[in-house]
Structures are given as structure tokens and as C-alpha cells.
Amino acid sequence: MKLKRFVSIPVLSVITLVGFVYYITVFVFIEDWIGLQSSAGFLNSLIFTGLASLCVFSFLVCVLADPGGVPSGFLPDVEESYASDQEIKRNGVVPRKCDKCSSYKPPRAHHCRVCRRCVLRMDHHCSWINNCVGQRNYKPFLLLVFYATAATTYSAAIIISCIIKNWDTDVSSTSKTFRIGIGSWITALSLTLGSLLIWNIYLASHNMTTIEYHKGKRAAWLARKSGLSYHHPYDVGFYKNATLVLGSDMLKWLWPTATSHIKDGLSFPTIRESS
């Protein structure tokens, strides 16, 4: 059952962390800064609650969503199977067989040792969601990182504002140490998540997975040694790459379950097809 994925120390740690950050931000720092009963306090708590809720919702989708498995009996297209070596190199699509599953796998699919199956367009296995990040749940994963970054950054701003306001009036050294410690921790967390967000935006804008990035570095090095140039075969342009992940309707870009645009993950547009 998918609910068993919640029975995991990393997953439970994330849930506990979100609850802790929400509690101290709203009921400790906003209350101490401007008060929850004030209009400004209510507005700030409402905005932060919205960001935290979207973060939790994205997290739940990531945990429960199937990243996409290779259909049983999958066989590569005959045309691809008998393509010339030169054609295969141009397309970047090579018929491959999984040593673990003993069956063919589509382009960009990889075997996950943890999930014990091949995952479509596999990016990586994430312990924090106890699930693979692949074809069908990459968008909610990207939005999870986005909303987590936004929420922690907003929380850090509130905590820092509270520290500045009460710096002269707060005479207790223990209280100051607590506030500064929490503020530093939240700021570090937001910077870490922000770095992860920038990394995933880079990958999405180039229509690349983490696995493909590392393989691409070696391919580029080998190409340079041969006096050639390497270009990621699935990078079909910034906007097209974005729509492949987020969808063509920009109004639905920030909604984790708006994934009707996601294809079967058995084939992907390449540079040659787009040119």
C-alpha cells in the first residue's frame, strides 16, 4: 500500500519539521512580533499558512504518486531497434535492456535499487519522500522544493524582524540566544532549499535529470577529446522544456496535481525532431 511509504523515519522527520516550523513561526514569532490579533499579524499568518499548506500538499503528492514504471512486456520500436549507429547517436536513443529486470526499458528509464524496478525518466530516489522522483511525480517534487523554499524564506524574514524589534527590550540572554539560534537555523534551511530549487530549475530548463547531468558531463568530456561538441539530446528549448514539466497552461503551473499533460514516458521529443 502507498500509505506504507509514510512509515519511514525521513518522512516522519519531514512532517515533524514542518509542524515545528509552522508552530514557532505563527504562535511564537508572529505573536511576539506584531500579535496574531492585529490585521498585520493575521495577514502574515494567513500568507505563511497558505505557503505551508501548499508545501504539505506537494509533499503528500510526492509520497503517494507513482513515479511511473515500465509497462510489462515493453519492447522498443522496431525502427529504433534497427537504426544505424549514426542515427542512434543523433537521436540519443539507444534500445537498452535492464540487467536486473531482464527486460527492455525505454529511453531515460533507470533501475532503482531501493524500489527494485525500472522507473520512467528517473531523476533519483529521494529518502525524504520514500519514493522515486520520475516521470509522473517530478512536477510535484519541483513544486515541493519551491513551496518549501518560499515558506522557510518567509519564516526567516518574520523571525529576523521579530529579533530586530525586540533586540533592545529583550534583556534575557537565554531568550536572545534561542531567537538567534532558531533564526540562524531557519535561514540556513531556506538557503539549502533555495540551492536545491536553483539546481532543479536548471535541470528542468534543460529537460535533464540528475542522472543525465552526470552522464552528460562525461559525454561532453569525451566529445571534446574527439574535437566534437555535445548537446543534451532532450533539450528542446527553454519554453518547450518548461511546458513538458509544468504543462502548457500557465495558470496550472503551481498546482501539484495538474499533471494531465504528462505523457506515457516511453518516448520523448529530441533536438532532431524539434529542428
Protein architecture, described:
A hairpin with a 4-residue loop joins strand 5 (124-126) and strand 6. Residues 80-92 have low confidence and may be disordered. The protein has helices at 9-33, 39-64, 78-81, 85-91, 138-165, 173-205, 210-225, 238-246, 271-274; strands at 96-98, 103-105, 110-112, 117-119, 124-126, 131-133. The two termini are 44 Å apart. It is mainly α. It is built from 9 helices and 6 strands; from the N terminus they run H-H-H-H-E-E-E-E-E-E-H-H-H-H-H. 31% of the residues are buried. Strands 1-2 form a two-stranded antiparallel sheet. Strands 3-4 form a two-stranded antiparallel ribbon. The radius of gyration is 23 Å and the shape is elongated.
